[in-house]
Amino acid sequence: MSILRVPARPFLGVAAAALLVACGGDDICLNCNPDSTPTPGPTTSVTLEGDILRLSTLDPLSSVVIVTCVDPAAGVPLADCSDAFTTQADNEGNFTRSRITAGALALFFWIDRNEDGQVDPGDPYAVLQDPESRLADVTGGETVDIQAAQVDFATQTAVATIVLSRTPTPTPVPTATPAG
């Protein structure tokens, strides 16, 4: 049994609305390290974006949850990650997630077959391969772009082009002060 829990879909609409109002939107993380800063800021956090090109199943792209595990412990399954951030792919397979804690990252793609909000035996999942260790030390202010992911649930692996770049910092726009 894993500790990664995501609200079940029938309850998801109500829970998501409550969380968005109460917690500030997409900066919610599951199983975050209680000893770390609860919500990383834009200059100290990582942004994840990407797209799924192909699944090995006939499931809709929008059924895929992308899980980012920060500083995964050796020998511990990614589904039991103690510092995990999730996002859902849209109908075209695009996904984005901001305010992920910087560090060593591991990603996996998952479909919650029984919609119970946790990774169960039998749920399809695939771990993103990172042969060049691009995700070994992602620093705050970087964007991780997972391009054209090909997800093979049969082999439990996913391959993609991984591109790291600096996250653009918004430029403040001066406002005129009314003469008074």
Give a written overview of the molecule:
- The protein is mainly beta.
- It has a single domain, classed as Carboxypeptidase-like, regulatory domain (Immunoglobulin-like).
- Helices cover 8% and strands 34% of the residues.
- The chain has one helix spanning 9-23; strands at 45-55, 65-70, 84-88, 94-101, 105-110, 125-128, 142-152, 157-166.
- A hairpin with a 4-residue loop joins strand 7 (142-152) and strand 8.
- It is globular and about 70 Å long.
- The N and C termini lie far apart (65 Å).
- 26% of the residues are buried.
- The model is unreliable at 6-29 and 34-38 (pLDDT under 50).
**Could you name the ranges where pLDDT drops below 50 across 5 or more consecutive residues?**
6-29, 34-38
What is the count of DSSP helices, taking H or I runs of 4+ residues? 1
Annotation, overall tally of beta strands: 8
Rg on CA atoms, Å: 17 Å
Please identify the top-level CATH class: Mainly Beta
**Strand share of the residues?**
25-35%
The largest β sheet comes out as: 8 strands, mixed
End-to-end Cα distance, whole Å, is 65 Å
Number of domains: 1
Q: Which key terms come to mind for this protein?
A:
180 residues; mainly beta; Immunoglobulin-like; eight-stranded mixed sheet; 1 helix
Question: What can be said about this structure in brief?
Answer:
The chain has one helix and eight strands; from the N terminus they run H-E-E-E-E-E-E-E-E.
